[in-house]
Amino acid sequence: MYKIMIIEDDASIRRELYLLLKNASYEPAETALFTDLPQQIQKENPDLVLLDVNLPYESGLGVCRELRQFSDVPVIFVTSQNTSMDELECITSGGDDYISKPYQAPILLARIAAVLKRTGKSQDGASLTYKGVTLDLLACTARYQDREAELSKNEFRILVYLFQHTGQVVSRMDLIEDLWDNQVFIDDNTLSVNMTRLRGKLADIGVRDLIETKRGLGYKL
């Protein structure tokens, strides 16, 4: 299990990241103290660091530069800044990748998996598994036994969201907001179409009744 350290001063975002990583089968670590961060990271010895740029006492960029004096631990900057200059600063400060807020959970998980694989921390990349079905976060595929299905972007994101909330009823509105949160209006039928296609692809690889419809409520794994 790969340990990922979260350095984020917003407590609600930090908690959100903690739960996201835990549900994705990582070992999350966090800190609410924002002094001597390079030393904290060294002591925690994570496999990867999620580092906010805007921190109370020192910029995440400065933290990463200090960290690079004695450690090559992979760093992904998570920041509200999203210009090309901000991205360049993150990379030239020693970061391995950069993602802006608000981020999409599947995109962040895919970035984490890609960095772990690229830096040699992971041989196979990250995946999510439930009831024998494995989601490859890099290839956007679903595998069951020896069969594999390629998923569209929306089909993949629907399944990732459901995997992250196993045992819970996920409302249609929750899925719509996760998939299309930047759009003003979405035809509710669009979700139904994507769900039908997803179920069809799962059936093609021998997976039936994985996604349960809760009438009037939503969906549940």
From TrEMBL:
Residues 125-221 bind DNA. Residues 125-221 form the OmpR/PhoB-type domain. The modification 4-aspartylphosphate is found at residue 52. Residues 3-116 form the Response regulatory domain. GO terms for cellular component: cytosol; protein-DNA complex. It holds the Pfam family Trans_reg_C. Keywords: DNA-binding, Phosphoprotein, Transcription, Transcription regulation. Transmembrane segments: none annotated. GO terms for molecular function: phosphorelay response regulator activity; transcription cis-regulatory region binding. Coiled coil: none annotated. GO terms for biological process: regulation of DNA-templated transcription. May play the central regulatory role in sporulation. It may be an element of the effector pathway responsible for the activation of sporulation genes in response to nutritional stress. Spo0A may act in concert with spo0H (a sigma factor) to control the expression of some genes that are critical to the sporulation process. This is Stage 0 sporulation protein A homolog. It comes from Hominibacterium faecale.
